[in-house]
Amino acid sequence: MRVKAIIIDDEKHVREGLLLLAQWKHHGIHTILEAEDGEEAKKLIMEHKPEIIFTDMRMPKLDGISLLKWLHSSNIHCKTIVVSGYDDFEYMRNAIYYKSFDYLLKPIEPDVLNDTLEKAVHEWKEQARTRKYLVEENKVMNEVKPLYWDRLFSNLCRAEGEAGAAGEKIEAEFGIRFGKMEKRISLIPIRPVVLKSFQGDRDLAFFTLTNICNELLSKQNDGVCFRNIHKDEELAVLVWNDQNLTFLLEELYTLIYQFSKICITISLGEKSLSMQDAYESALKVCMQDDLRKRDKIITSCNKPKPLLHLLDYSGDLKWAIRTGSPDGIKDLLQQIFQTLESLHTVSMEQIQLWENQFELLRTNWLKEYEIESRSSFYRGVDYWSEDGAFSFHKFKNEKTKEFMELIETLKSKKYQKEKNNMQRIEEYLQQHYQEDVTLQEIADTFFLSREYISRKFKQEYNLTITDYLMNIRLEKAKKLLENPYLKIYEVAYGVGYGNEKYFSKVFKKQVGATPNEFRRSLLNYN
């Protein structure tokens, strides 16, 4: 660590004396600046940020006391050593008050000077190291803590009842009687915001919107906003103080609109002591609402019309595809769209069903034509106007594009293979290691059988998927353990382990040391 120093004194021979007497290189100081008064010194200090400052007290323009005041108020990280020929109590008192490291009287003894300089450099390095750790700790905590709460609240949305340990942590963090309070959940599908305001950057959208919402919710401790890790684009607002709920949700709507210029729809569920019941109530409202309406806040839906099943048209679609006629497909799709628009509710539930059934049809037809499935097919998901309103016209265009691409693929049986399946699965594991990834989930994601994935992955990487995922998590954990201020359970949650003891057991078995032992070995090495 290279250290810089500055000598401030209006007498040139004093500056020269300090330059000769101090063992600068021995103390790691390679740059020594000089100034004749405090005004000149301020400019040099702002420009070069020296770690060690020697200053006289009596100087023209700006004296030592004024300089000490300025250094103190500027919060500059340095060690100041006062060098004065005056054994004056007022100077001494000001030096102490403004946190001067030491006070040396002229003439200066070389041993005293170098001893003071050594101590000053050592203390500055220790404090700099502490500041660095604190910065790293804050950085890691800012990254890990939201993940922890997102996971905890998301799991409570799926679990039966409120787990005791999770409830206690919530009560300790937010100062509420979580298990005894009725709760309501609002859901905000953010796909329009992601597409229109964040150019598809989902993580940045979640980070920004949760901060906006939590800033408002925390003012009166009304609730908390979190990312549902089990859904791709679902923001959840858990409210435990609903005295001003309507005003609160309208304010959330306004804040999000002011930032993104997107009109969102907030779905509000019923009250419940169970977070799972509160979530499922809100999810039902969200999934069954007619997207063609423009309501800000919805609390209930009319009885939904029956869902349209694309599979019911599979025979006609397959025949149209076999003919290879784009016009034939477009005519058939137009009939399906007319039926959907007039006889069915255009809801998130309906769109999700359409997307899932189209994926199934496409996969089956590709297999029939002996064409290997791929991940680069066009996926039409932009069904919204620039202000966030659902557009049935855009929905039709997106779905038509998907069918047109499929026709061309089946006709030519040619496509560009970007990555083989196992490479894509390995990439998927790198991106989702913090989640509870299962073999079945991977099979569903890549439309391959579990047996095929297990056999091929082992051949490619000489590891099972479980072992490969474990290695990713352990490598990430080792990195987090470098920060001594991060607790072990925070490291565990940060790499996808919901149980600290199980994480420690796996870590010890694979690394040969417990997480704490591994951390101590890092500190001893440094």
From TrEMBL:
Q: Name one GO biological process term.
A: phosphorelay signal transduction system
**SMART domains from the UniProt entry:** HTH_ARAC (SM00342), REC (SM00448)
Q: Where is the Response regulatory domain?
A: 4-121
Q: Name one GO molecular function term.
A: sequence-specific DNA binding
Instruction: Write the record's keywords in alphabetical order, separated by commas.
Output: Cytoplasm, DNA-binding, Phosphoprotein, Transcription, Transcription regulation, Two-component regulatory system
In terms of InterPro entries, this protein maps to: CheY-like_superfamily, Homeodomain-like_sf, HptR, HTH_AraC, HTH_AraC-typ_CS, Sig_transdc_resp-reg_receiver, Tscrpt_reg_AraC-type_HTH
Localization terms from the record: Cytoplasm
Q: Name one GO cellular component term.
A: cytoplasm
> Which Pfam families does the record match to this protein?
HTH_18 (PF12833), Response_reg (PF00072)
**What domain of life?**
Bacteria
Give residue numbers for the modification (4-aspartylphosphate). 56
Q: Where is the HTH araC/xylS-type domain?
A: 423-521
Concerning PROSITE patterns, the annotation shows: HTH_ARAC_FAMILY_1, HTH_ARAC_FAMILY_2, RESPONSE_REGULATORY
Location, primary (coarse class): cytoplasm
Q: Under which name does UniProt file this protein?
A: Two-component system, response regulator YesN
Organism equals [Bacillus] enclensis
